[in-house]
Design goal:
The protein is of the alpha+beta class. The protein is 40% helix and 15% strand. The chain folds into two domains: 209 residues, D-Maltodextrin-Binding Protein, domain 2, CATH 3.40.190.10; 195 residues, D-Maltodextrin-Binding Protein, domain 2 (3-Layer(aba) Sandwich), CATH 3.40.190.10. It is built from 18 helices and 14 strands. Helix 9 packs across helix 10 and helix 17 packs antiparallel against helix 18. The longest helix is centred in the C-terminal third of the chain and has 16 residues.
Length: 419
């Protein structure tokens, strides 16, 4: 999922095309090795950052090595357990991956720097919270990307809708108006569980809750059931399949066919849609997923990246200097403008205010969340009882019964023997 989200968010950028090393300076400098992921930053951005960093840190040389997402997990695990002589000093990881790397005390605790120097109270919660373990900060937020509503401006105008909805009730009412004359008010696949997660969080619920160090599924709570009920009502205002997710078929192709008024997706998907149907150029708009009230947008799942420092680095201070520079206001702003990302702090959102899609994304990211911060969550996603639960409810099954069954399965994956 995360690879898809990032690829869509970066579709128009000039991207690093292969694994390799960006050369830094030479002569009497200590080398700091940095692993960054393919497509996270353009080659031009990394060149400018390297030159600036080495100019302001004349004792350090940057060795930035671009990694592939495929197979990165075992590679990072090996680096965290290996010798510091040839390993990375700074690693970019997915925000929800920090939990699986922090086990065993293999990451550097960066709580002091986060509190004293880096303004951690202003970080986007969807990036900061997954980087925390037992009140200590190990993952430092770098950038975010999340879903918004992509809509057809012409179909909104045709339906007499003058401005995008700002509340859930308005969203339902407008979508019902749009769901006429052969057009779908919204295309929402039945198993789009990331979108459902936002509705559950908005109601005050969770996918899973931790108590006494034990994680248990929480889809059967009243709050989570309210989130599912809203999803059911919204999904019914279109013809999205109940037994498939947003990639089966790819919703960009469905939207490009010309009979859909709205989808929930990352803004970069608009470029794919226009490529498939050039007639839609200039007709696509963006707005944040509406919240329960107009006071704030809805909660959304936040994807993106954190930076970690392996505990086995041979120069903690140098690694911290790299993290400080990459996540500081100057280069956060540059990265956001270059790659159309959301910066790591809501206070920096003005950097992308001129881009409609990214501005909508930033508004939602201010209230973003991430999946439960436990390394066992990957097992839940592999089996994904949430998808099956959604399909059953959308097909008419009793929500409470199915939510209870799905919660039991989540508990079994998170804490075997407790289901």
């Amino acid at each position: 999922m995360r690879r898809r989200l990032l690829a869509l968010a970066c579709a128009s950028a000039s991207l690093v095309s292969a694994c390799g090393v960006l050369p830094g300076g030479s002569g009497g400098r200590h080398t700091v090795t940095v692993w960054l992921m393919k497509d996270s930053a353009s080659q031009e951005f990394l060149r400018r950052f390297t030159e600036d960093f080495e100019r302001t840190h004349d004792d350090l040389r940057l060795d930035i090595r671009i990694q592939q997402w495929t197979g990165i997990g075992p590679k990072v695990q090996a680096a965290l357990s290996g010798s510091a002589d040839d390993g990375p000093d700074v690693i970019e990881v997915g925000n929800t991956q920090v939990a699986q790397y922090v086990e065993g005390g293999r990451l550097t605790n960066l709580t002091l720097e986060s509190m004293r120097d880096w303004g951690m109270d202003d970080w986007l919660p969807g990036l900061a919270e997954p980087g925390e373990d037992n009140s200590a900060q190990f993952g430092i937020p770098w950038y975010a990307a999340n879903r918004v509503v992509i809509y057809r401006k012409d179909l909104f105008e045709k339906a007499g809708i003058k401005s995008p909805p700002r509340t859930r009730d308005e969203w339902l009412a407008d979508t019902e108006k749009l769901n006429s004359g052969g057009d779908q008010g919204i295309y929402l696949a039945g198993q789009d569980w990331y979108t459902l997660s936002g509705f559950i969080w908005d109601e005050g619920g969770d996918l899973a809750k931790q108590s006494a160090n034990i994680w248990k599924g929480a889809l059967d709570t009243p709050a989570a059931l309210r989130g599912m009920d809203f999803y059911r009502r919204l999904q019914a205002l279109g013809n999205g399949p109940t037994e498939a997710d947003e990639e089966h078929p790819p919703q960009a192709g469905v939207f490009a066919a010309g009979k859909v008024a709205q989808i929930v997706a990352v803004p970069g998907l608009a470029q794919v849609i226009v490529q498939k149907n050039p007639a839609l150029k200039g007709e696509l708009g963006f707005f944040p997923v509406p919240g329960k009230t107009a006071a704030r947008p809805g909660t959304v799942f936040t994807g993106g990246s954190d930076l970690i420092v392996p505990r086995n680095t041979d120069d903690r201070d140098a690694a911290v200097a790299v993290v400080a520079a990459l996540t500081g206001a100057k280069w956060e702003t540059e990265l956001a403008r270059t790659m159309n990302y959301v910066p790591n702090k809501a206070t920096l959102a003005s950097a992308v205010a001129g881009e409609e899609g990214v501005a909508a994304m930033a508004a939602g990211a201010a209230h973003g969340r991430a999946t439960p911060s436990t390394p066992q969550w990957a097992a839940v996603e592999a089996e994904n009882p949430i998808k099956e639960y959604m399909s059953k409810v959308l097909s008419g099954a009793d929500p409470r019964t199915e939510a209870r069954h799905a919660s039991q399965r989540i508990t079994e994956e998170l804490a075997p023997g407790l289901g």
